[in-house]
Amino acid sequence: MHKVIPWIAAAVFIAMYFGLMLGAATNKALFTEPAFDGGVVSVGLLLGVAMNVGTLLLVGGYIVYLNHRSAAQDGL
Amino acid sequence: MNTSVVLIFVAFIAATLGITAWASRRSQSRKAYYTAGGQITGTQNGLALAGDFLSAAAFLGVPGLYFAAGFDGFIYGLGTFVGWPIMLFLTAGKLRSLGRYTLTDVLAVRLKETPIRIFAASANLIVLLFYMVAQMVGGGALLKLLLGLDFTYAAMLVGVLMIVYVVFGGMLATTWVQIVKATLLISTALTLAGLVLIAFDFNLGALFQAAIDKHPAGAAIMGPGNLITSPLGAFSLALTSALGTTGLPHVMMRFFTVPNAKEANYSAFIATALGGGFCLVMIIVGFGTIALLSGNPDYTTGPAQLKGGGNLASLYLADALGGNLFLGFVAAVAFSTILAVVSGLTLAAAATVSHDLYASVIKKGAQTEREELWISRSAAAVFGVCGVGLSLVFQHLNVNILALFATSVAASALFPLLILALYWKPLSTAGALAGGGTGLVGAITCLILGPDVWVALLGHAAPIFPVQYPTVLAMPFAFVMAFAVSLAVPDKK
Question: I need a labelling partner for B459 at 20 to 30 A (CA). Which of A3, B52, B65, B481 fits?
């Protein structure tokens, strides 16, 4: 199980980043539309910030997992 | 010439030379010289790693792209940190556990030492040299503009300083110069963003609206424009940004400066967090350049056109918001950015020559530590002189082509070898050489036949290879060749 977790984390990140890039390339009109009625922030900018924050949460969670695993190994 | 800019430049150079003098007394052994004795903490190394990618392109180039095209600047800016998560998940800890001084050490653990070291060292030097020339050309142009120095003297100043840092201070000086620079750069970006927010009463909506009102493209700046032209191009750019970083020798070498795999992972986490945060802060700075500089005749020559080029956007913003003194400070930070990055590149090249080629291939481990260090310091000086010389030759070439060349070769030739060496047991020496060679030749060929060289440089009507980044073709071919040849020609047990 522990061998698969880094690959799952990498796959989640790649899905977020490549999804954003391919979305921007294939759907420029949608990415330029305002995300909220009457607002100026676009769907693209909102998705980009979400991808950025999502990545930070993912790497933060991964470090917590590594520390937890390391503590568990020390306890054995 | 701006006096405050010069004074701040001199103060920065004095401080970094002080760091080098301190580090030189602690860099007498081989381990201390190459890897700072493995005593850099995870947080310090994370800052140094972040510094490697928060380069002049991130601080000067990205705000320029925001100013010209809005959202495209954000997409381009993501490239400053998307390599780090992959490194954290797949390579950082394993790399630290397997290697000693260089990226090639990791490959030599599993494969026949002499051929793999010769190939990997050659690919490393190609990547480092082109990366170096790109930085030197950008740095020389910046100094020429800010201090009024002739390009030749500007490049020589950068060259002499980086040789001094590396020859005398080794990895310890290089790392601390990078840490100081990363701290200054992040603080400066935060200050700029804070000043922009103050100018708009902390109302992000008002900032974006002002940018839309002032930019000739209007609301279109909130969406993708010209940077991403096709799904294939977007896919290739994403591949290069996310995976190319993991093949950069000067970045990988930093993982050997920490004491263990846990600290290596932690440093990759810190680098990701800092890079991601920087990217978010640059949204405010970038749209701030549009909202606050557009239409001001002191900074612009026309709609979406800055005096002296787009790379000056963040410097002009500093002048508009903080006056002459703040401009001087930001310019010194930009200069320190270039110095810190080229020093890291020079050290990685010196270690490649002295450790991978001289000590391991030529002398087969029979050299003394003193001999190896002498070769390393000499190689640093020679590499620095080559960097200055080539930057003078290529000073008129598009910096982007040079940087593109380096990252594409790293992604296509070195990343496949590294990831297969770490995770695929059947990888053989013949497979590694075939895969790496295919990636190297494929990347160079596609780059020459692509739009940046075939059309822009050589003047042909249309490119033979349609995508700017060759990684999309060269990297898969490298993997396929490495798989096929490894299975056909396995290493003898």
Answer: B65
| pLDDT, one tens digit for every residue, chain B (493 residues) | 567 778 888 888 888 888 888 888 877 788 888 888 888 999 999 999 998 888 767 888 888 889 988 998 898 888 778 888 998 899 888 888 887 788 888 888 889 989 999 999 999 999 998 888 888 887 777 777 677 788 888 888 888 888 888 888 888 888 998 898 899 999 999 999 999 999 999 999 999 999 999 999 999 999 987 677 788 888 888 898 888 888 888 888 899 899 988 899 999 999 999 999 999 999 999 999 999 999 899 999 888 888 877 778 888 999 999 988 888 888 888 888 888 888 888 888 999 999 889 988 898 888 888 888 899 899 999 999 998 998 888 877 766 667 777 888 899 999 999 999 999 999 999 999 999 999 999 999 998 999 888 988 888 999 999 888 899 999 999 999 999 999 999 988 6
Say if B466 is an interface residue toward chain A (CB within 8 Å).
Answer: no
Q: Measure the CA–CA gap between B64 and B70, rounded to whole angstroms.
A: 9
Instruction: Indicate the residue type of B434.
Output: A
Q: Is ipTM > 0.85 here?
A: yes
Residues of A within an 8 Å Cβ radius of B: 6-7, 9-10, 13-14, 17-18, 20-22, 24-26, 28-29, 31-34, 39-45, 48-49, 51-53, 55-56, 58-60, 62-63, 66, 70
CB distance B234–A52 less than 8 Å? Answer: no
Helix (H) and strand (E) counts in chain A: 3, 0
A63, A64, A70: best mutation site toward chain B, by most B Cβ within 10 Å? A63
Q: What is the pTM of this model?
A: 0.89
Nearest to B55 by CA among B26, B77, B31: B77
Which residues does chain A have within 8 Å of residue B70's beta carbon, measured at their own beta carbons? none
Work out the angle at residue B121's Cα, subtended by the Cα atoms of residues B361 and B126, and round it to the nearest 5 degrees. 150
Q: Yes or no: say if B448 and B216 are a contact pair by the CB < 8 Å rule.
A: no
Instruction: Search chain B and give the residue with CA nearest A60.
Output: B269
Q: Which residues of B touch A13 (CB under 8 A)?
A: 85-86, 89
Nearest C-alpha neighbor of B478 from the set B409, B392, B375: B409
CATH number for B3-400 (one of 3.40.630.30, 1.20.1730.10, 3.40.50.261, 1.10.10.410): it is 1.20.1730.10
Three-state secondary structure call for residue A12 = helix
Subunit contact B88:A62, Cβ cutoff 8 A: yes
Sketch the domain layout of chain B as residue ranges. 3-400
